[in-house]
Amino acid sequence: MAADPEVVSALKNIPWFAELKPEHFNRMAEAATMRHVRAGEELFKEGDKEDCFYVVVEGRVALDIFVPHRGKVRIYTAEPMDLIGWSVATPVVHHRTASATVVQPGRLVGFEAEKIRQMCEEDHDFGYIFMRRIANIIAGRLMVTRLQLLDMFAEPSAETRHAQ
Asked: Quick one: 53 exposed, middle or buried, by C-beta within 10 A (0-12, 13-18, 19+)?
């Protein structure tokens, strides 16, 4: 199966794919599709079953989680070159951990999670490179989350101040 030329062109401009061997790059491109998105479009909801993860090529995507007694809370806004929905590419998580809504129209490259997991199992060299990159993304997101938590606890909410 030949990869979509629009996908191949987009992937060549994403540093994340730069050190892949040509055969790995080609297999990833074959497992990918280009998705044109509009502002307000919902990509997936927290708790949904897995299907694919995305690299933002153009536009912006908000990631939100549901917090009891607070409702929907934005935890991250993905910019071009960001990977979103990465948790479905891991071997264990098969449900969405956040909701994703397009805030600025653009293009996303979507990868079929099952095909990529299968590639990782079949070719451990590829799997190592792929999972190392996913681990870097996870570490970065954990740092952002930690900073958000520190900010939340450093500045008590109005409810907390009145309760004291």
From this structure: buried
